[in-house]
Design goal:
The structure is a single chain. The protein is an alpha+beta fold. The chain is built from 6 helices and 11 strands. It has helices at about 10-25, 70-85, 90-100, 105-120, 200-215, 220-225; strands at about 5, 10, 30-35, 40, 45-55, 60-65, 140-145, 165-170, 175-180, 180-190, 190-195. The strands form 4 sheets. Strands 6-5-7-8-11 form a 5-stranded mixed beta sheet, with helices on one face. Strands 1-2 form a two-stranded antiparallel ribbon. Helix 1 (about 10-25) crosses helix 2 and helix 1 crosses helix 5 (about 200-215).
Length: about 230
């Protein structure tokens, strides 16, 4: 998971993003949202990655579009570049959202988020002129709690996002592992998960979990040999 290629150092988070995208592509019925009591399927597999800003005092994020069609290194390169832009205040979308929300009194923030969710998801209105991107959280959300030194964490669903899956990537550390009758020290990580049972049933969740686990354990078998990130033409 720490292999470097083309100047990008792959991390467990990059692999989890690619793995959940693969799982969603293989389970298209889970790649949806609930609006006005009905299930609507998304037409692309997009994964939203939370990004800590201001030294961890705030959270923002970036969406990797069509993550299922990109190699792990493409995912890593895009996330690395986009996360740097967010942290340095160079991401136009994040800055516009922060400025807009900064003008809203705290007591109006929650009702406003509910209203914009209703207008964009339920009524399918385009609020791009107001700086509100449609479906900005995508098919699944991934957060790296390992960056805060945590092995585990809670993964609550975020109703306003209409994203039915949240994954938490814990810190990699050596732990005891039984292998061929012997106990060895091996690098391990926990991946916490929450899913919306209204959209995803237990069978689908189990199948997707196996895909994620197997892909993170053996990226070469799941995604093919490592290749450098593709360059834009």
């Amino acid at each position: 998971a720490n292999a470097a290629s083309g100047g990008v150092r792959l991390t467990p988070t990059h692999l989890v993003v690619k793995a959940i995208a693969k799982a969603l592509a293989e389970t298209p019925a889970a790649n949806g949202m609930i609006a006005l009591g009905r299930v609507y399927l998304r037409d692309s597999v997009d994964v939203y990655c939370q990004v800590a800003t201001e030294g961890g005092r705030d959270l923002s994020g970036v969406k990797i579009r069509h993550a299922d069609r990109k190699s792990p290194h493409d995912v890593g390169a895009e996330l690395q570049s986009s996360a740097a832009a967010v942290r340095e205040g160079r991401d136009a979308g994040s800055e516009s959202t922060k400025k807009s929300l900064g003008r809203v009194p705290d007591f109006l923030l929650r009702p406003l988020l509910r209203l914009t969710g209703f207008l964009t998801f339920d009524l399918r209105l385009n609020l791009g002129a107001l700086g509100i991107a449609y479906d900005q959280f995508g098919s699944a959300m991934v957060s790296n709690v390992g960056g805060f030194g945590l092995h585990n964490g809670l993964a609550p669903l975020v109703p306003v996002s209409r994203s039915p899956i949240v994954l938490l990537v814990g810190e990699v550390s050596e732990r005891p592992l039984a292998e061929h009758g012997a106990v060895i020290a091996a690098p391990m990580l926990n991946i916490g998960a929450t899913f919306d049972h209204r959209l995803i049933d237990g069978f689908q969740a189990a199948r997707m979990a196996r895909t994620v686990i197997e892909a993170v354990k053996d990226p070469g078998a799941a995604f093919g040999p490592p290749v450098p990130p593709s360059r834009p033409s």
